[in-house]
Design brief:
Mean pLDDT of chain A: 95
Radius of gyration of chain A: 13 Å
Largest sheet of chain B: 6 strands, mixed
Shape of chain A: globular
Distance between the termini of chain A: 36 Å
Number of strands of chain B: 11
Number of strands of chain A: 11
Mean pLDDT of chain B: 92
Strand content of chain A: over 45%
Largest sheet of chain A: 7 strands, mixed
Helix content of chain A: under 10%
Number of helices of chain A: 0
Oligomer: heterodimer
Order of helices and strands of chain B: EEEEEEEEEEE
Shape of chain B: globular
Chain lengths: 112, 111
């Protein structure tokens, strides 16, 4: 089954404790992205990747890091999480740059 | 200025009616336009995409694009209670993989 898998689905952590949210897709897509979704602000793109070792900043990259060492994986790293990073996070992949995005199930992160 | 704007609603329509959802965007260079549906607590799923001016129909859904007015809409005919969700408009400017989403319109279809 074609899918984008994120882990964990739910995470509560403390300020400053480094964390990684994993994302994996099995569709051999070139393009992958991370979004955060906040009430009233909608989905905002954090980072995107056009291929292995090629990443670029989206709209709200501050406080986040990404890496793309393999085509299927695109982890999101929060080196020092802060409460304003409490949000619902989605990973997405697409076959082309402007093509349909397939979303993962979401990760609800709470930073206390 | 927001890149993509939608009326947040809520929009309520009776079952069987036509639901009309609207979206405007600010960048004239935008090339690709998408409508996603998101049920509460779930991830967005694609309903329609449109690249050219005019109408595009897929079953009960019609997407309309007017690049001169920087306007894209989604019509849902014969609305069903299962269509009750938040509808997200998304725009791609063909500069890499950068997408801009609206804040979504909440639709409720009343049985």
């Amino acid at each position: 089954e074609a899918q984008v898998t994120q882990n964990p689905r739910y995470l509560i952590t403390v300020t400053g404790k480094k964390l990684t949210v994993t994302c994996s897709q099995n569709m051999n897509h070139e393009y992958m992205s991370w979004y955060r979704q906040d009430p009233g602000l909608g989905l905002r793109q954090i980072y995107y990747s056009m291929n292995v070792e090629v990443t670029d900043k989206g709209d709200v990259p501050e406080g986040y890091k990404v890496s793309r060492k393999e085509k299927r994986n695109f982890p999101l790293i929060l080196e020092s999480p802060s409460p304003n990073q409490t949000s619902l996070y989605f990973c997405a992949s697409s076959f082309t740059a402007a093509g349909e995005a397939f979303f993962g199930q979401g990760t609800r992160l709470t930073v206390v | 200025q927001k890149e993509v704007e939608q009326n947040s609603g809520p929009l309520s329509v009776p079952e069987g009616a036509i639901a009309s959802l609207n979206c405007t965007y600010s960048d004239r260079g935008s090339q690709s336009f998408f409508w996603y549906r998101q049920y509460s607590g779930k991830s967005p799923e694609l309903i329609m995409f449109i690249y050219s001016n005019g109408d595009k129909e897929d079953g009960r859904f019609t997407a309309q694009l007017n690049k001169a007015s920087q306007y894209v809409s989604l019509l849902i005919r014969d609305s069903q209670p299962s269509d009750s969700a938040t509808y997200l408009c998304a725009v791609n400017q063909d500069t890499g993989n950068q997408f801009y989403f609206g804040t979504g319109t909440s639709l409720t279809v009343i049985p």
